Amino acid sequence: MDGMRLRLVLISVVVPSLVIVAAVVGGRWAAGEVGGDTRSALTSALDSLPADTQVAGFTDWSRIRHVLGLGSASTAADRAALADDAGLRDLSTRSVIGQFTEEMHDAYGWSTADLDWEAYGQAPDGAAMVAR
Predict the structure, then answer these.
(1) What pTM, to 2 d.p., does this model score?
(2) Which long-range contacts (CB under 8 A, 24 or more apart) does 71-80 make?
């Protein structure tokens, strides 16, 4: 029975943990945190879109927070100011998710307040939204 219990622990705890670690490392690598991405935000965003993208939109959330003087925008008031002021000042018109900042924070624990940038691309066979 001990061998079976060990196998159950491996399957139910260790394997999912390894999958999570692989996903986090893969995400950090894709985000340029491993190996250092020296490209501009726009270049990195456009390179993340499908090769056959015909129309692209780019929103530099890091720059918007800087322009609005919001820093990390870690409070609900700062996130509300980010969403409102970015829209009013026409800084986030190309954003797909900019109007959902607080809803995203509540649902996922992250939002546009945590992103460096967002890009939206349309191709003949569909569309994609990517973010860092």
Answers:
(1) 0.69
(2) 72/113, 73/113, 74/113, 76/102, 76/105, 78/113, 79/105, 79/111, 79/113
